[in-house]
Every structure is written in structure tokens, then in C-alpha cells.
Prior knowledge:
- The protein has a single domain, classed as Rossmann fold (3-Layer(aba) Sandwich).
- It is built from nine helices and nine strands.
- The chain has helices spanning 13-24, 40-45, 60-74, 97-125, 146-166, 199-208, 218-230, 242-261, 263-268, and strands at 4-8, 28-33, 50-54, 79-82, 88-89, 129-133, 172-178, 190-191, 237-240.
- The strands form two sheets. A seven-stranded parallel beta sheet has the order 3-2-1-4-6-7-9, with helices on both faces. Strands 5-8 form a two-stranded parallel ribbon.
- The protein is globular, with a radius of gyration of 20 Å.
Amino acid sequence: MSRVWFITGGSRGLGKAFTRAALESGDLVTTASRSTDGLSELAAAHPGRLLTLSVDVTDREAVFSGIAAAVEHHGRLDVVVNNAGFMSNGMIEEFTEAQARAQFDVNFFGALWVSQAALPFLRRQGSGHIVQISSIAALGGFPSTGLYSASKFALEGLSEALAQEAAQFGVKVSIAQPGGYWTDLYTSVRSTEPRPEYAELRAELERQWADGSVDSLPRLAAQALLKLVASDDPPLRLLFGSMVYDLAFDLSRQRMDTWAAWEHVSRAAEEATPAPA
């Protein structure tokens, strides 16, 4: 039986690759994006199987209406992909309140609203799979992408809890952690106003990035996503790409080494004591 997908940010980048892959596998798809431009070709190639909705994921009411419209149109809901997001670039000190909130409104709260809207339908049918598209940036914080990393760290914390809460209803939750792909993520970066105090650090980062990025085609991420949702026992986390795979292990080893080196301090900070009178 064909699966029914709901994909946010499905009109471009990884979202469009996910939409194409799902359609080509014979499934039904609803895409929810602020703009539905760029999807007419896919809609024409797969008549009657692609529903496009203009939805801003930061608008909670619109998200709930969009999920309800998708379920009414296709009759059910099987796979929810929270893909909508963007990257902010800038040093932590440079962010305005509006810029910081905008980063979280899309990357974190947008995924929260979609998850909340989808759960009643998935819970009632006793099945479904929510896939949160995180990032290599959730493996650690890096200079100039701190707010982006923070939004993805928050998404992963939410998703770990959600996975445990939803499991009793037969609903699965997975976190996909992609590395670099040739999308418009980098070209659509929103940057802060640079402060002169960080000029030296920025120059160092530019030297590190001088060779440019060697990224992958989005269809490879889409193939990994299809394998993930086809699994009867999908993992909570799945790394997309060799670079992110290697970095995950490197950072984990560094953290374990540090924890071990400071074990004596950590253990000394705890001693079981009866509740004070």
C-alpha cells in the first residue's frame, strides 16, 4: 500500500528531493511550504498524488489546518518529515533578539507545531513515523553557526522525548543528521551585522573554508530517508554522509575522554543524602 507523506519545506533543497523520491516510489505526498513554486513539474509528472499547500510553519494555526487538510485529502498520514529550516550566520554576541527568535521560530517551533498537529491522527490510527531533519550542526557548536546549532540541539532534545512519549501509540520518531548537500541552504543564509572584535576569527574561518565545500547530491539524502522510513525498526538517529559520520565519532570520543579525565570531580559532586528536615 502506498504511504502518505507530509513534508515541510518541500519546494526546494532537500525537501524537494524528499518529495521527488517519495513520489517516484509510488507514494502520496503533501508538501507544506511558504511558497509552492518549483513543484509544478513534479505535480504534472505524478497527477493526483501531490498536494501542495502554502503554509508558514511558524504559524501554529496554519500548521494545524494544513495537517488536517492533508489527512482529509489523502485519507491518512504515514510519514511526517519536518524539513523546513534555514541557517543564521554570526557570532553569538552579534545576534539581535529578532534574529535569534526567527532562527528558533522556524527550525524548532515549526517542527514542534507540525509534530503536535500530526500526533492526534497518528495516535488514532496506531502507526506513523515522524522524521526530524536535524543537521551536522547538532553534533557540536561551531563559531558563527551557534544559533543554528542551538536550534538543532533543541529539536533533538524535543525529539528524544517525543520518541518515548509516542512509542506507546505505535508512532516512531527518528532524527536525521545530514552533512553537506548542494542545496540553497548556504546561499540563503541570514547573516548578522559583523562586529570588528571578531574580524580576526572571521579571517581564520575564511582561511579554513578557502578550499570550498565538497558536498553531495540531495538525491543521496533522499535515498537514505527512504531506507529509514521503510525499516520496521528505524533508529532514533541516522547520520547522512561519511563526513558527519566521522565527525560524530570524533566528537563523541573527545567528550568521553574529557568526562573520564574529570571523573573524580564529577563523582565527588554527588552524595546520597536524606531530604533536609
